[in-house]
Backbone:
């Protein structure tokens, strides 16, 4: 009952309903006015016509009395009124139909614009928009604004799709070209069939495999096919499982890796493998962009109703203009660095961001500028 009442009240809050009501009233008033004017103009002529006929009949009658004259006058008046009603009703009907067509055309004009625009979008023209000066303030205006917003998002998605296809083609072409060149060199006898040549081919094949695996992972995340195996875990155990295997890798490059975990942190309910994947990605990213004798610190602390993870380095940093884009697919702040030098497929940060958001958290980056280090932070809600 409450739902029906709320819906009934919502109907009367609609500006479009008042427009329809005003259109009905306008048609009724126009028809009534046309009827009144037509009857006023036609009734005098009709009455005179019938009165003339009555006089002709009276002159042809022999010995007619006053009672007969009264009856004939009444009948003439009634006939005149009926004739006037028919004429005025026909005129009022024609005028009301024309008025209804005109008003309905004016009212449905925004709908026709939306229909044409939606057909343009369906035909692939994502740049089509409803002009702002043609958008009203009623419900259809809100619908037009929503349509423009949808068109902008579709245009953005289409641009991302085209860019993604180009980026993937480029990323696949690089290792395939290297593999093909090495194989041709082996067949032509230009390259020696030794261990170093095979290692080079293996490295390029490994890069190609990592790229394909990352794309498959990203596809699963985007299609909501990712399943999280959530369990309650201790944060100290999670950090240790991530840091210990990476200590030798950091030591080989001469970068110090430290971890700082706040005491008495609550347990978090997460997919441990996925959060480790996020931390591995952030720490690996910090390692590649931190020079020798640099420092990387993994810190975990309580932040309100969430646990805050941060990976801070004193490496090359991120210019401010690149910060909003670093989580985009295949985006690189330093265009001169190759994928091999960068150490990744270019979508690792995108995957990390998606995994954090799948846990209900948020991932972002901070940097004071070039050569001033950077910090990647993400939160995980405490359940």
Residues:
């Amino acid at each position: 009952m409450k739902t029906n009442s709320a819906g009934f009240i919502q109907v009367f809050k609609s500006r479009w309903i008042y427009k329809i009501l005003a259109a009905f009233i306008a048609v009724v008033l126009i028809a009534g006015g046309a009827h009144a004017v037509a009857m006023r103009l036609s009734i005098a002529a009709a009455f005179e016509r019938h009165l003339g006929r009555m006089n002709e009949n009276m002159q042809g009658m022999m010995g007619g009395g006053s009672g007969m004259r009264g009856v004939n006058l009444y009948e003439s008046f009634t006939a005149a009124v009926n004739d006037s009603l028919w004429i005025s009703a026909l005129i009022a009907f024609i005028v009301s139909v024309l008025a209804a067509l005109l008003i309905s055309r004016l009212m449905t004009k925004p709908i026709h614009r939306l229909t044409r625009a939606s057909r343009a979008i369906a035909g692939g023209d994502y740049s089509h928009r409803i002009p702002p000066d043609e958008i009203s303030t009623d419900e259809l205006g809100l619908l037009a604004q929503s349509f423009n917003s949808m068109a902008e998002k579709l245009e953005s998605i289409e641009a991302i799709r085209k860019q993604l296809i180009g980026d993937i083609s480029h990323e696949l072409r690089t290792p395939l070209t290297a593999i093909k060149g090495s194989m041709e060199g082996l067949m032509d006898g230009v390259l020696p069939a030794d261990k170093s040549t095979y290692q080079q081919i293996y490295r390029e094949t490994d890069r190609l495999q990592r790229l394909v695996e990352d794309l498959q992972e990203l596809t699963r995340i985007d299609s909501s096919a990712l399943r999280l195996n959530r369990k309650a875990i201790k944060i100290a155990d999670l950090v240790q499982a991530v840091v210990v295997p990476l200590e030798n890798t950091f030591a080989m490059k001469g970068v110090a890796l430290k971890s700082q975990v706040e005491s008495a942190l609550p347990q978090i309910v997460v997919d441990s493998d996925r959060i480790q994947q996020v931390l591995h990605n952030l720490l690996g990213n910090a390692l590649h962009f931190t020079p020798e004798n640099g420092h990387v610190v993994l810190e975990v602390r309580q932040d309100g109703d969430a646990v805050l993870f941060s990976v801070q380095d004193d490496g090359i940093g991120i210019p401010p203009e690149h910060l909003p884009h670093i989580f985009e697919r295949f985006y690189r702040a330093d265009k001169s660095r190759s994928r091999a030098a960068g150490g990744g497929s270019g979508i690792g940060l995108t995957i990390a961001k998606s995994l954090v958001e799948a846990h209900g958290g948020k991932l972002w980056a901070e940097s004071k500028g070039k050569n001033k280090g950077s910090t990647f932070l993400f939160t995980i809600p405490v359940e």
